[in-house]
Amino acid sequence: MPLDASSLIPELLRDHANSTAQAFLKDAISRAGRVAMVSSFGADSAVLLHMVAQIDRNLPVLFIDTLALFPETVAYQKELAAHLGLSNVQTITPDRAALFERDADGLLHRSDTERCCTLRKAEPLERALQGYDAWITGRKRHQAATRADLDRVELEPGTGRIRLNPLADWSAAQIGAYLDAHELPRHPLVARGYPSIGCQPCTSRVLTGEDPRAGRWRGTEKTECGIHFIGGVPQRARKADAA
Ligand code: SF4
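^ inputs. structure came back:
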């Protein structure tokens, strides 16, 4: 029987109005049908990956390798997955023919970051999510004004999929405390001045006092990579809208 997202979403919100992220996540995974986690293996990712590993080490974890990542991220993905015992990490890459056709020289990010993110992130992820009823994201309200109203559960307009955002209400301090408490391996670039990590060409160091996401697409209005769709359209926010 197909998943009835319209009834499950309010049920999960009601049942977990006051529960922990871990309790919410465990129950949501058991009730939301075919569920995958999507992870960038970035600066905060170890928290949610650790929670998932405690619940089901074989849950599909989709890792989008844009083929423009820092080598440190690729190495960290392997290290962290092994550390947590995750046994079903699936690396998602852009379509080779589409890359050849639309970004043959690998420099599209210089002229059009929107089209580059669509090609290297949004389209591969959308393909990978076909067949799933729900996906787990690491989005948090504090990251941007566009995420200020983020619920733990939401319907993805246009696809009918459910998005689970267990850390929606977590602060940066809670993330740090969880990483410490569980002695989780850190992304090596965090200590080198990168509190938010995306593709190498579009991520720069952040100076003391700057917003943690200031190093993403520095000098542009872009703040989102566009892997979050509404009505099949990648959603992006302007930097001016970000907290
Ligand atoms: Fe391309 Fe930069 Fe987007 Fe990565 S973050 S997909 S390199 S525009």
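Residues 236-243 have pLDDT under 50 and may be disordered. The first helix runs from residue 5 to 15.
thumbs up if we can close this ticket
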